[in-house]
Design brief:
Layout lengths: L2 H27 L9 E8 L6 E8 L3 H31 L8 H17 L4 H57 L7 H20 L2 E5 L5 E5 L4 E4 L2 E2 L2 E4 L4 E4 L2 E2 L14 H33 L12 E3 L12 H4 E3 L13 H4 L13 H8 L5 E2 L9 E2 L1 H41 L3 H35 L1
Antiparallel strand pairs: 1-2, 3-4, 4-5, 5-6, 7-8, 8-9, 10-11, 12-13
């Protein structure tokens, strides 16, 4: 090897060593920087007329498969967490089956009050106690209905907010695509842009599941899990939502989850919110209304004093039940004013019937027993309520409360599983992408040795040249 070739080799070695030192220093400096991906360098040699030289190729350490699995688990966790986020306040208001605030407990308490009245039908204090228990039952359903509507309003606002957040992320990805075009792979600016892209994709992952593909132009194309295009080059789709129906669109294409024939999303926070608005909350509301309908119709049917069109003990805002106005009945459920002394009614109608004109026999129990019998009669339930085809009032109340709490229990179980999967994948990513300070410091020692060796070569070559020149 000639002196000039050796000089070129040693000089290139110093340049590579300097580049490696810069890279390691950058890794250490950004060890705690969110979204930063560890850089690793590979030395490659090349030959030429000037001798053998070395160069450094730098690459971000990424496992795309692990990243995709991590984002998938994040989407599942985001979807499962929606249930607790939206329904936590409502279910607290509803109470569990054994809680005294729940409609199921209030129903049993009211039934027990009627049993007491059957044993002492003439007692004004017992009659007043039955009315108070009926009021408490009605308020429990009214309160639950209002709380569920508040949850629906919260879900609608979150759905709209999530769409805004996703639109911002999609726009950012399209802008990053524009910046990535023409960038030299492995350059510091390219690596920085890729780190930003990685962060945008991770943030998007909790909102919705997606597929991605890197194009030959160096840009990223994004699709829904069903194949609808979200980002292509510098163009990003715009998401819009219908907060009443839970429908989700991408530039007018329906990507609502779990819709036959749709090429939409399948998981993520947006999928959870969509299902809340389209299915979960409407079914919960129907269950409440079916329970309210059961109360109104049962006590209308059991009241022998009524004529057609007259309301029973439980009313739809003071009126008899109208099948065409059943939606929202739980929120309008009330007590017949004919039993309220403060509004001109009389407590004895709890013994004699809501439309009785005059008090009957003080010891009569026929009407009271008919009211008690209403609890033993199975009544039809709307199939869409998901609580079977028929049930007695007490069983219907318990089934409703139990079914609605089970939704939360099931979601919490799914969230626990998704959280474990996400933690596992994130640990794997951290091993690949993260910076280990001890490892980087060891690399600095190797770099120092390499620098010293190349410097020694240059120093020896310089001495050789000086010796040759002195010999001339």
């Amino acid at each position: 090897m000639s002196i000039s070739s050796a000089f070129n080799s040693a000089s290139s070695g110093l340049r590579v060593t300097e580049a490696r030192a810069d890279m390691v220093a950058s890794n250490i400096a950004n060890a705690s920087t969110a979204g930063y991906t560890r850089r690793e360098g590979t030395q490659v040699s090349s030959g030429g007329t000037g001798g053998q030289t070395v160069d450094l190729r730098m690459a971000r350490q990424v496992d795309e498969r692990l990243a995709a699995m991590s984002r998938g688990a994040s989407a599942q966790l985001g979807q499962a967490n929606v249930t607790g986020e939206v329904l936590r306040g409502y279910l607290s208001t509803l109470g569990d089956i054994g809680d005294e605030i729940s409609p199921a407990a209030r129903m049993a308490d009211f039934q027990a009050g009627l049993d007491l009245l059957a044993n002492n039908p003439s007692s004004a204090s017992v009659q007043a106690d039955v009315l108070a228990r009926a009021d408490t039952l009605v308020r429990s359903l009214n309160t639950a209905s209002n709380a569920l509507e508040s949850s629906r309003t919260q879900a609608a606002a979150s759905f709209q907010s999530a769409a805004t957040e996703v639109n911002s992320a999609l726009s950012d990805i399209a802008n990053l695509n524009a910046q990535l075009r023409g960038q030299s792979i492995g350059s510091p600016s390219f690596s920085g842009l890729m780190d930003e892209m990685n962060m945008r994709l991770d943030a998007l992952g909790s909102q919705m599941d997606f597929q991605s593909r890197w194009e030959s132009s160096g840009t990223l194309t994004l699709f829904t899990a069903g194949g609808t295009e979200l980002v292509s080059g510098t163009d990003a789709a715009r998401l819009t939502v219908d907060t009443q129906s839970g429908t989700l669109f991408a530039d007018g294409t329906d990507i609502t989850p779990n819709q036959p024939g749709n090429r939409g999303i399948t998981s993520g926070r947006m999928a959870g919110l969509s299902q809340m608005l389209s299915n979960v909350i409407p079914q919960m509301k129907l269950q409440q209304d079916e329970l309210a309908r059961g109360l109104v119709e049962s006590f209308q049917d059991a009241d022998s004093s009524l004529t057609a069109g007259q309301p029973g003990l439980f009313t739809d805002g003071g009126a008899a039940f109208d099948p065409a106005q059943s939606d929202g009945l739980a929120g309008r459920l009330g007590i017949n004013a004919n039993v309220r002394p403060e509004t001109g009614g009389a407590l004895w109608r709890l013994r004699d019937g809501m439309s009785a004109a005059t008090p009957g026999d003080a010891g009569a129990t026929a009407q009271i027993n008919a009211f008690i019998g209403a609890f033993d009669t199975a009544r039809p339930i709307a199939t869409a309520a998901g609580l079977g085809s028929s049930a007695r009032l007490g069983d219907l109340a318990s089934s409703m409360v139990g079914a609605q709490h089970n939704i939360r229990v099931s979601a919490d179980s799914q969230a626990g599983t998704a959280s474990i999967r996400l933690a596992t994948f994130e640990d794997g990513r951290s091993m690949v992408e993260g910076v280990n300070i001890d490892t980087e410091l060891q690399k600095l020692l190797e770099i120092e040795q390499s620098y010293g060796a190349n410097s020694q070569v240059l120093s020896s070559l310089s001495d050789m040249i000086d010796t040759l020149l002195n010999a001339v």
